[in-house]
From TrEMBL, chains A, B:
Residues 13-119 form the HTH hxlR-type domain. The keyword Transcription applies. It comes from Niabella drilacis (strain DSM 25811 / CCM 8410 / CCUG 62505 / LMG 26954 / E90). Pfam families: HxlR. This is Transcriptional regulator, HxlR family. It comes from the Bacteria. Keywords: DNA-binding, Transcription, Transcription regulation.
Length: 121, 121
DNA sequence: ATGCATAGTTACCTCCAAGTAAGTAGTTAC
DNA sequence: GTAACTACTTACTTGGAGGTAACTATGCAT
């Protein structure tokens, strides 16, 4: 999907504030994109709550549960209760949620590069 | 620049937490990407402080100054004092700062689309 | 000397994202 | 009956992002 970039100084160039704000409000927190990326690393329906809690260093059960709930409400992940003993719950990205992967990877790559740039001070 | 996406479940797929965290810490706030996008809409060296303050609805002088300072420290924008009366200050994206434009636009586009998805509930 | 412009700064306040720690609930295993 | 597993939930707390409003500095105009 190629997005046409408006020309500089053209009237339509003035950014749509609300759209970017919406994204930042939903995704700008500390954990959501991290969670998305971690789920994306497993085949569908194979990412368990406990596994995420262990893999994502520093996250607490409370935050993970809260963030996953928000992601589910926003149709980015699905939550499936499995018939195992003890009960397990798996999380998977929706097709729509997968549209976040390139964005998250770009940000990740940018952050990786940024370390170098800043160290070169 | 095409970034190779690691295969699912491969060991290197486990996301580099720190890189994404760095990006989110720097750019995840309410204003920085908005400012970047607004500056990108003007030819180099033509974006004044007051202009940004007026264009970016809701931002205060304090926040704008603070965010611009952080962006400057991170080599994303340059600050130039102009010999006008009264003195004006212009901000411009560095070449490096421009690497954020596609990311900001993608997020913006994603937010625009997200509104539709969520309204379709 | 008062007002207006640009480009901030300073002091104070508020709220919430995020952290910590402990508890709940269902089930199995011994 | 108690320990252990998964998947949360609840109560309490705190740092800092962000908001508001007033103030500073400099120069020009009238």
């Amino acid at each position: 999907m190629h997005i046409k970039r408006p020309e500089k100084t053209s009237p339509e160039c003035i950014p749509n504030l609300l759209a970017l704000r919406d994204s930042l409000e939903l995704l700008g927190g500390k954990w959501k994109l991290l969670i998305v990326l971690h789920i994306s690393c497993r085949p569908k329906e194979l990412q368990h709550f406990k596994k995420l809690e262990k893999e994502i260093t520093g996250i607490s059960a409370k935050m993970l549960a809260k963030e996953l709930k928000t992601l589910e409400e926003n149709k980015i992940v699905t939550r499936t209760i499995q018939n195992t003993r003890p009960v397990t719950v798996t999380y998977a990205l929706t097709a729509y949620g997968e549209s976040l992967i390139p964005i998250a990877r770009d940000l990740q790559q940018w952050g990786l590069n940024h370390r170098k740039i800043i160290k070169e001070k």
